[in-house]
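Subject: Protein record for review, amino acid sequence with backbone structure tokens
Why sent: The fold of this protein is of interest and is recorded here as tokens.
Enclosed: The protein record, placed directly beneath this head.
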Amino acid sequence: MKSRDMVVYSALALIWGLSFLVLMKAVYAFGWVGAVAFRALIASLTLYALARLMRRKLDFSLGWKPLLVVGATTVAGQLIGLSIAGPLIGTAMSAILVATIPLFSMMISAVWGLERINASRLAGLGLGIGGVVLLVGFPAVPVTAAFLGGCAAALLGSFSAAFGSNYASRWLSRAGAWEVTIGAFFFGGAMTLPLLVVVPVPTVPVLADYLWLAGLACGMSALTYVMYFGLVAAIGATRAISVEFAVTTVAVVIGALVLNEPFGPLQAFGAAIIVAGCALVLGLVRLPERT
């Protein structure tokens, strides 16, 4: 992997790790429907406006249908799942279930014939998941129907993210990252917005709430997804989406520093295992081949 790709990979891990905290604030202020719909539409409009200001030529000649699929999965499906799950199961459990995205991605990619599964990637995925379990630990809350529903929502969101990334890798490889991001967020937001009739905004947002939403939409969605879809095109869906392992590490560290969540030697060991797993999935370290 090139040094530029490593910089993008690291930046995504940091920004998306921080986004767990910001997402919770947006969901409490706007509800899970409002947080997803407003976030997606603002992100799409922000990128489109930036493209116009930069006089960047946008090419949507591939049509709207592939963008609709990516918007329904990577944007709407994933963000709805995480927005529902967060308040029900908490940041820690959300993070551990997000780490299933690379596993789903590897399986989908293998079925579609996009990438080959080798011993190093299997070992890396196993290490990554094992490290997340050590890092986050088991939930300290009672296992209720609401808790199980939150887990199901997080897993559905994770599968949606994996499906959308592989779909983009297969059908939108010739499209630009800006076009994919603008279109996916537009369709994802447009599909979610009508749900406000069923799940309206629960409070009257204040200025701080709008600032959190703007940061989530512009900084943690619009710009980062341009980076992410560019990374998918450069290194493949499974290796790109393995960033979720590192995102989990960042999210838990932020939780320990900001929310005073526990972080001891076991969590540090889990973080080290996650780094090792990412290195194997990314191909930075390879297991010896059998002869």
Notes: The chain is about 80% helix and 0% strand. The mean pLDDT is 85. The first helix runs from residue 3 to 53. Residues 49 and 130 are 42 Å apart (CA to CA).
